[in-house]
Amino acid sequence: MTRTRRRLPARPVAALAVAAGVLGLVVATPPGEASPRTAPAAAAAENTATVFYWTKTKNWTLHNLHYAPDGGSWTTVPGVAMEAACTDWVKKTVTLGTATGLQATFNNGSGTWDNNGGKNYALGTGSITVKDGVVAHSDPCAGTEPTPTPTPTDSAKATVYYSGEALGWSTVNVHYQPAGGAWTTVPGIGMQAACTGWWKREVDLGSATSLKAAFNNGNGTWDNNRGSDYTIGTGVSTVRNNVVTANASDPCAAAVPDTQAPTAPTRVTAAADGVSVLLTWDPATDDRGVTRYQVTRAGGSGGTVVTDVGSTVFSDTGLAERTAYSYTVKAVDAAGNVSAASAAATATTGDEPQTPSAGKPLGTDPRKDPIYFVLTARFNDGDASNNRGGSQHTKSGNAANEDPMFRGDFKGLIQKLDYVKGLGFSAVWVTPVVLNRSDYDYHGYHGYDFYKVDPRLESAGASYQDLIDAAHAKGMKIYQDVVYNHSSRWGAKGLFTPTVYGVRDSQWSWYYDEKQPGFEYDGLTVDAKSGKSYYNGDLWSTAEPTGNTCVNWGKPTGGKSAEGYTVYNCQWPSPTSGMFPKALFHQCWIGNWEGEDSRSCWLHEDLADLDTESPAVQNYLIGAYNKYIDMGVDGFRVDTAVHIPRTTWNRRFLPAIQERVTQRHGAEAAKNFFVFGEVAAFVNDKWNRGSVNHSAQFYTWKERKEYDADDTKAALEMYDYEQQQGTGSQPTSTNAFLNGNTYHAPDHSRFSGMNVIDMRMHMNFGDAYNAFSNGKDSDDSYNDATYNVVYVDSHDYGPNKSSERYTGGTDAWAENMSLMWTFRGIPTLYYGSEIEFQKGKKIDCGPSCPLATTGRAYFGDHVAGSVTASGFSQVSSASGAVATTLQQPLAQHVQRLNQIRRAIPALQMGQYSTEGIQGGMAFKRRYTSGSTDSFALVTVSGGATYTGIPNGTYTDAVTGDVRTVSNGTLSVGAPGKGNLRVYVLNGTGRIGAPGPYLK
């Protein structure tokens, strides 16, 4: 981001299997699996599905299942009656014929429906649960049936209690194997809720005295004790935070049943926008914590609809035009207690807008997709009519260069998607798209209206939706840069916009525009009277406005402006003036960048720091970003993530993202919706100056204990607790590492939902070997470093916090690229680096120098002309300047690196090891899934010797050289700086043609 240093669920697996001979190993379904549904059972002549529905929180007297087998017809409304299964559950077994799934909704037979927020439930075969909107693969009633005639037995038993309080699971299965026996069928046997935070299951062991076990949430996320499974004996055992306690006391023995319902939600508001309604409310309270909410909608022809949501925001879409709707909200706690209904909120829809229909994310593993990062406004100009220079156009020197700050746009990016694809990139990271408002806001980080796309980026036929759709049509993803931490200095429209003191006198009339009733700022439209698109007449007042909280309104400060004019109190936004409400914004400047105040004070005068622990702020932001999820973006890059407490991410924003993607696009899309945060740590330490709360890897983990229900208090409690725990007591992971030569199933049960930019490698990319060494040193502290986003430089900094674009030379760039494209993580390139664009130039100097002289210069001249990509890294035709650009050494280098990486799964998703390897930047990687087993030996620039590797035939993807290994050893000569060797076990041959470095 641009600044001046002024001072829910884990990643699920779509379908599961147990690898023969490797007990408890979870293997994901091959990438071709398209169905965003629960895992199907083994196909039979006639498939069946037993659907369990949770009844406790709905309070219906009857339950019907209305369904349609895939490719078949719906049952007649209201469907088929469900039968009692066990306490709080009903069920229905349906025959599907050859179908492998069904669409389903539920109703009470009297016109009240649960249809998954209008999307229906996509269910597979086997035993499936639907509990408060969450679908899982489980039989919650297995083993609960009474035994008609109990008989004495000498069979040993194990009573297993599992704590899921740190995981947020609503369903728990235990998958187990008695010693000497066979494993249960995946996903295992359903556990029963025993008391708050604990699940219970009694297991009959027969003659065995112990069992191996792993636990899962029925939706693809496993806790397998970091790949080792749990060993559990007879009697009572507890499993909590990877620790088994044998002969334990019953953790629920002293628990008092929770019978107290939450309070009813308050301040429910409903606002219509076209045929959608945005509903928000203040959180309810509960003695043990609210877990979900039920939104009930009445009105229209669809009857009454009940939808379960996990946040205090709900966007109801696809409604009828010009129709009145009424909404009430109830709160639900973990015990299933339901509050009274809130007061009703009403809204009437308007006409359906004439906009493109929403897209759908591609939904594939993000590690497959190298990222090309563009400042949209500086990349390529496809429509000159939306160019705007802003208030600093002349002062900055941009006018003299005929280079308005807003120059590139979505149309220009759409025109050059084939350039990006021709380089081999399949994901594009775009800077924030929301309407900005400041003196110099082309970069997008000064958000003003979070619900509106900035018109300076859009054109007729080239809206943001058009960009998303055009990228998807080419098999490319769009990652949207998003900001939760702050708004523009002018606040956030719809939440709060400050009014400053202004006066049109002999000194200041040039600065303050006359008020134009009815004129609304959008950054693009020019106010006819002032001739400005940056009109500010709506932001100031000479008279003190009603409700003003700014201190000493309009009184001279005693100071003078740069022009020598009188300066007044409340003339500019400030956190310490009282201008911003404490309920929505923080009130201080950051003093210690590694202190608690870095999460609760302003970064810069242009960035009004939002109180992200405020329910009103949370609702505003969740509602805004739901809009872009609905449009089909493939992920979010999160700006300034470190300046928001991890508890708030884990409690509010990350679960809201997962919930919305799941609801709108399905579980598979949610699993692969890629969230990666900027946790800026500009040091070379593993832990940022010893502060865990300010370190990138810290944000990849869920909380490991419960905190106060109040988000502000929880943030402080977590900060103090984790700082006291220190760096030596943080969780560790083997998810990025091979076990010898063997790939093992990663344990993502404690993954927060946020991946991160690899700041440590970024800071050390002045030298590739330093980046490699520092990256390896940190990898055990991330939940899964194979998802780290890796780049050399960006729109903010170069390596070692340099303020210039990387200038280490072409050979060093080639070496850095060769490492990034073969080592763990997702390689990312800042626009123009493929030709060393603006190397050595200051990345950002604000309006004090022309953009043309910076690392944010306009790139369109270098991609002018025509280009057509026939595939990734495949250019079928190019003419003009873009053809010359594509012939540059680094452009050709990255083009082939992308070819090689795309062809070798181990380089995309594999774990790695340096065990048994002699060499500098040398390592081995492997990825195993289903029928895919990809094993590669890599060395960058220098030679290497690999020992203890599998015997077989290895082929170098760079040269085509073939080696046969019979003694577990392979030696490779030094290929030279920037070059590399990738010997692939059972490889198919050379990939791509020799180039300036890869040869």
Brief characterization of the structure:
This protein is of the alpha+beta class. It has 14 helices and 52 strands. Helix 11 (810-820) runs parallel beside helix 13.
How many DSSP-defined strands? 52
List the uncertain runs.
2-44
Structural class: alpha+beta
Distance between the termini: 38 Å
| Largest β sheet strand count, sense and barrel closure | 9 strands, mixed
Helical residue percent?
10-25%
Shape: globular
The average pLDDT value, as a whole number, equals 92
Number of helices: 14
Rg, nearest Å: 29 Å
What portion of the residues fall into strands of 2 or more residues?
25-35%
Signal peptide: 1-34
Biased composition (Polar residues): 383-399
Keywords: Carbohydrate metabolism, Glycosidase, Hydrolase, Metal-binding, Polysaccharide degradation, Signal
Pfam family, one: fn3
What does this structure look like?
There is one protein chain. The protein is α+β, with helices and mostly antiparallel strands. The strands form twelve sheets. Strands 2, 3, 6, 7, 8, 23, 24, 26 and 27 form a nine-stranded mixed β-sheet that branches. It is globular and about 95 Å long.
Features of the shown structure:
999 residues, alpha+beta, eight-stranded parallel sheet, 52 strands, disordered N terminus
